Amino acid sequence: MNSNTDKAPFWIGADGALLGPQMSRSSEVWLRIVDGRIHTIAKAPKEGEAATHYAGLLVPGFVDTQVNGGGGRMFNRQPSVETLKLMLDAHGRFGTTSMLPTLISDDIRVMQAALAAAISAREAGLDGIAGIHFEGPHLSLERKGCHSEARLRELGDIELALYAEAVSQLGVCVVTLAPERVGPEDVRRLVALGVRVSLGHSNANAETVMTALDAGASGFTHLYNGMSQLESRAPGMVGTALSDPRAFCGIILDGHHLHPVSATLAWRAKGSRRLMLVTDAMSPVGSEEPEFEFFGGKVVRRGTELRDLNGSLAGSVLEMTTAVRYAVKVLGIPLEQAVAMASSTPAAFAGLNDRGMLAEGMRADLLLLDDALYQSKRWQGGRLAAGAEVRSKSV
């Protein structure tokens, strides 16, 4: 029996695994896969059923809630099913089995095209498209970063209708907004629609941020970057995010967006159940693209860093396995917690209750990691995927 099929039960075994919501480490383990889900976890396979044992550590597939591009494509520039497939393929080589394609602040027609592409991708069977993330356009001018000022605007009925459709059709819609631009009543309206509100690209003071959290906002987009900073008498968005136990925080561990001390502080303040790894990846991931067009300007790649012509960081070329290795090898975070930050925690933030951990009943989105924490195998809904990780990173 070939484990590329999910039509008949089969077993996947490995030297070890990180099991359950606590990512408990187990020695040799076997997973019985039925119809693309984990049916049974056992110490030995059932006699008479197909079984394959692998050398390595089985972990849940990674969930990336902020992916702007990959495979040489930007979602903003070409919001299509083909682009989403290229993004999935590119990031899949580095551990991502579920993603929220992310649209940076843009015109309403582009937003509508992006949603239509995500819906069509799901209908075409690209189940790694777990929803959609609109990063803007309701952001602060003072903290806009590389977002186009011409695309920033207030929340209107047309955007509300779009977000409602996204929740209805995809199940998951994240909207990043600045709470000084979208008041608490509108945050409540969004949350009532089923939107997951994340705060970012904001110059708001702590009181405004806390009001948005009380109204139902549940996350912060790329913590520290694009937000009011922590000061002694003005904690800003950073201080509020670190201190509030309710909120999830995305963090970009590419060695450029954060100093290791800042990243370690975030982990110690939030813990692995509220701090989640994101890539904020742009089109060069999975390609050799040295630069790309971005809202009429250019973004240039220098090694593993992306900057626009104004010198601002413009997303990343980070992938999830590199982020996990950075967390473990540079920050000293235990592997079990680093994997949770890449899988169960982002799944919990997005409300993806059927993935993000190795447990009975969950989707069989699996990774096999080698001793150096590189991906050697990947299963998407129980199907063995092609393409192992390219070992080109320094971490």
Automatic annotation (TrEMBL):
> What catalytic activity is recorded?
N-acetyl-D-glucosamine 6-phosphate + H2O = D-glucosamine 6-phosphate + acetate
Give the matching SUPFAM superfamilies. Answer: Composite domain of metallo-dependent hydrolases, Metallo-dependent hydrolases
Q: Which residues form the active site?
A: 280
Cofactor section: a divalent metal cation
- What does this protein's record comment on cofactor binding? Binds 1 divalent metal cation per subunit.
This enzyme's EC code(s): 3.5.1.25
Tell me the protein's name: N-acetylgalactosamine-6-phosphate deacetylase
Origin organism of this chain? Answer: Shewanella algae
Encoding gene (name): nagA_2
